[in-house]
Amino acid sequence: MITSVTTSSLSVAIVVRSPKKETYVRLVETVPLPFGMGHTHLVQKCKFCSSVGTVTMITGLGRPLTHADSEAGKCAPLMLFDCRGFEQLDYVFRGEWEAESLKGTIFEGIDLSGDEFVEYDERGEAPVMTSRPSATFNIVK
Asked: Which of the ends of the chain has fewer CB neighbours closer than 10 A, N or C?
């Protein structure tokens, strides 16, 4: 069993506006806001209405998904996105993720784009796995 799952990658893919096109947002890449002062992680113009939307990733407010969360069927807030003019439709589990077994073994470089991770924890003498990652978006004000 896995104790927690976190991302060690600094880039995430989110789907905004059109479910056929993924838009990647990287924590380490920022662009100036088109209005006012400050920076954001994504500025994109709508092809249909020409309105400008932004997505800013807010760090420090998420937490790992734990084994207890998984057993209870609960989600964990991994990241907070400040979306203005966008509606997030989906989250793509790309990049490298990290997991910790119940015995404390760290597994790094996990690719969840294939929907499943299976490994053996030699210290804990047990198989570990995570499968079918899914995302939900909750509006926070």
From this structure: C
Q: Of 136, 64, 74, 59, which is closest to residue 97 (Cα–Cα)?
A: 64
pLDDT in tens, 68-84: 888 888 888 888 888 88
Alpha helix locations (H) across 50-106?
67-72
pTM, 2 dp: 0.70
Tell me whether residue 138 is in a domain. no
At 52-62, the pLDDT tens digits run 888 888 888 88
d(CA 116, CA 99): 12
* Containing structural domain, residue 30: 2-131
The CA distance from 127 to 138, in Å, is: 33
Number of structural domains (the chain) is 1
Q: Is the dihedral of CA 65, 66, 71, 72 positive or negative?
A: negative
